Give the backbone structure.
Amino acid sequence: MNKKIIKLFLIITTCIFLLVPALAQTDFSTSDNGIDVYFFWAHGCPHCSDEKPFLEKLEQKYSNLKVHSFEVTGSKENVDLLKKASKEL
């Protein structure tokens, strides 16, 4: 497997594992501010395809939650955004 694809997969997986516990511990119902979730995903990734319906349900349940979805396998701009987010986090 290409090293670049492996690295991208590891970054995406790490983001998912960091995102889910943070969501579980947050009380959205009492928040005055909107919450933005940035979801970077890849075609063919089984974890990503599991995460999509989960995030859609959360977005429907909590009106102040907005999921921003970025597909990274077909977009250099989204890969660059993922790299920038990874560096900042």
Notes: The radius of gyration is 14 Å.
